Amino acid sequence: MRCHGQRLVPVLLTLSLLFLVVMPVWAADPEIDRLLRSPVGKDWVTNGGNLTNQRYSTLKQINTSNVKQLKGAWMIRLKGSGYGGKYSLEATPLVKDGVMYMITGNDDVFALNAKTGEFLWEYWSGINQKINTVCCGWDNRGVALGEGLVFFGQLDANVVALDAKTGKLVWKTPIEQWENGYTITSAPIYYDGMIYIGISGGEFGVRGRVTALDAKSGEILWRAYTLPAPGEPGSETWPPGTDHSMRGGATVWNTPALDPDLGLLYFATGNCGPDYDGASREGDNLFCASIMAVHAKTGAYAWHFQQVHHDIWDYDAASPVVLFDTVINGQQRKGIAEAGRTGWVYLLDRTDGKPLLGIEERPVPQEPRQKTAKTQPFPVGDAIVPQCADLLAGYDKAGCIFEPFWETPVLLQPSGIGGTNWSPVPYSPDTGYFYVPGTVRTSAFTRFGDKFKLGKLYVGGSQSAPIGSPQSGTFTAIDSKTNKIVWQNQQPYRTGQGGGAVATAGGLVFRGGSDGNFLALDARTGEELWRFQTGFGADAPPMTYEVDGEQYVAIATGGNQSIGSANGDAVWVFSLKGQLQPLWPPPPPPTVAGPTGPIAEGVDKVEIANNNREYGYGPMRIRIKVGTTVTWTNVGDLNHTATAMEKRVWDTGDLAPGGSKAITFNEPGVYYYLCTPHPWMYGQVIVEQ
Ligand SMILES: [Cu+2]
C-alpha cells in the first residue's frame, strides 16, 4: 500500500468536510424540508401547516385584542371551477413566498398573488366528468409543495406534479383506476424527495393503501397496504380461506403526518367493506378504522391501533392524525391524536401506538349474525357528541354507540358520518387543546347484504337519518392532558364535515360555518370575538400566512354537498387593513333530516340530479293517485337510486347516468325514499285513493 498514515488523515478530513458541506444538499429541497419540520410562520407549505398536521401558526399580528377590526383584504371567484351540485370545496390553500396555491373539487389548480388575489396561472384538469365511483361528492382536500413542483391527487386516481412557476404538467402517475372504485380526495405530503398519498374508495370494495412516489420523476417507490393479503400479519383477523380482506376498504381519506426523528409516517384508515354487513367478515378486520405507522422510507409496518373492531357502523377514522409533544406524569411524551367518527379523540404514544392516557376494552352488545366483536375500545375522557339515540315513532329500537343491528332498523348516535368526519383538528401548544368539530345526528342502521362487483358500490346496508329528526353540531376544545372537554360551542348545523379550523399564537381559533359565517374564537374560552359572512358555505379549513409584514387569514368558501351548505367557488382573505364588507347570507343548511319544499300534485316523472343538483330529486315531493306509475330518470353524472327508506319495499336499483326505472304504487301511503349510495338525498311519494 502506498497510502501512508500521514496522507490518510487529510484525506479523511477532506472527506468529512465534504460530507458536512454536501450533506444538506443531498436533500432534494432543503428549504421546504426545513419549513416542514419547523413551527409554521409566514409560509404555510403543506396541508396541515407542517409535518405534524397541527394547523397551528406562530403568527400573532392578529390577536384577541384587535381581531374585531378584521375585514376582507381580497376575495376572488375561481372562475366557476367546482361550482355545481356535485362539488364540495374542502381544500386548505397553501402559501409560499407570496404565492397562494388552491385546488377545487374538479381538481383544477390556481396560483394566486397572495397579497392581491391576482391570478398567476391556472391548471384545468380536464378530468373525465363521467367518473361514477366518487363516494361522497367531488372534492379535493389540497396540494403539496416541494422541488419547485405542486403535487396533488385526482379523482381519477392519478397523482400529478405541476411546475410551481408556470402550472405546466411535469408528470402524472396512475395509482389505480377509478373504474375499479379507486379515487383520490386527500392532500399528499412532500418530505425529503418523496410524496405520500392515500387512496379513497372504501364504499366500492377496494384495497386501501398509502403510496410513496419519487417527487422528481413520479415513479412509485412503495405501497403500504392497509389490508393484509392471506398469510400476512393481520390476516388472522379475517375469515380463513377467503379473500375478503382484498376488498375490505380501509382507505386513507386524510393527509399523513411524519416524524423525521422517528422516521415514521402516520395516517388513519377508513371503514371496512362492505360497510354495514359484517356477516361475511368474522374477526376484528385489521387494519380498518385504525391509526397506523409505517417506516417512511420503505412503507414497512411499524404499529397500529384499531379504534373500532369489526366496524359495521362506518365509524372510520377520516380526520387527519395530529402529532404533538406533551408531559404526562412528569414524563416527556411523543403523542399522536385522531378525532374519530365515534365522537372520541384517540390519544396514543407515537413511538409504539400504545394509549397515552388509557383506552379500555369493554364488552359491547352482540348480534351473532353480524359477527360483532366482543369488546370495543373506550378512551378515557369525554366524547364531543352524544353517544346514545332516543327512540322515535316508527322504530322498534334505539341504542348507544356500538349497538348492533340486522335487518330491522336500529337508531344510533353518533351516526356513521360522525362525530368528526373528514375535518381536520388543530392543536395549540399554547393551550394544549385540540379544537374538534362534531356532528350530532341520529342514524337508522340496517343491513341487507351486497354482492361484490368490481367498481360497483359495496356497502351491504344503509344508514339514514329519520325523517324530521334534528341534526346539529358541536365545536369543542379537548384538553390533551385529560382528553376532557374544556369548552364546547353548540352549533345549529352539522359541523363534523366542515368546521375545520386553524389555531394561532395570537390566542385565536378561526373556523368556518356551514351558514357562510367565518368566526374567530378565543382559544382559551371559546368566546366568539368576530364573525364575517362570506356568502357561501364556509366548510373548508382556514389557514394564515404573512406577506410583506402583514398577516392574512384565508378560507375557501364553496359549501359542502354532504351538509347541504351553499355551493360556491370563492377564496376569501382577511387582514387588519382589509376594506371588503360581508356578503348577503346564503340559504342555511337543513337542521332536520328529510325532504323539504313544495309538494308537486299529479306528477309521475321525477328527475334525479336535476338543475345541476347532483344530490337531489326534482320534484323532491310528489302526490299521486293509487295505481300511478312513477318514472325516475337519472340526469346526473353519477349513479343514483331511489330506494324506499329502511324496509326497501320498492327500489329503482342502481341507475347509471341516463338510466330510468318505472315503479307502480298500488297501496296508499306516504313513502319516503333516499339514494342508497348518498343517503342524504331524500324524496317523498304520497299515494292517495
Ligand atoms: Cu345518489
Descriptive account of the structure:
The chain is mainly beta and 689 residues long. 4% of the residues lie in helices and 35% in strands. The protein is built from two helices and 47 strands. A five-stranded mixed beta sheet has the order 1-32-33-34-35, with no helix packed on it. Strands 39-42-47-46-44 form a five-stranded mixed beta sheet, with no helix packed on it. It has a four-stranded antiparallel beta sheet with strand order 2-38-37-36, with no helix packed on it. A hairpin with a 2-residue loop joins strand 7 and strand 8 (149-153). The longest helix has 22 residues, at 5-26. It is globular and about 70 Å long. The N and C termini lie far apart (107 Å). Mean pLDDT is 93; it is low at 1-25. Copper (II) ion (CU) binds at residues 640, 675, 677-678, 681.
What would the principal axes of the Cα set say about the shape?
globular
Seen as an oligomer or otherwise, the chain set is single chain
- The beta-strand count equals 47
Number of helical runs? 2
The main sheet orders its strands as 1-32-33-34-35
**Percent of residues in beta strands:** 25-35%
* Spans where pLDDT lies below 50 across 5 or more residues: 1-25
* Overall pLDDT confidence: 93
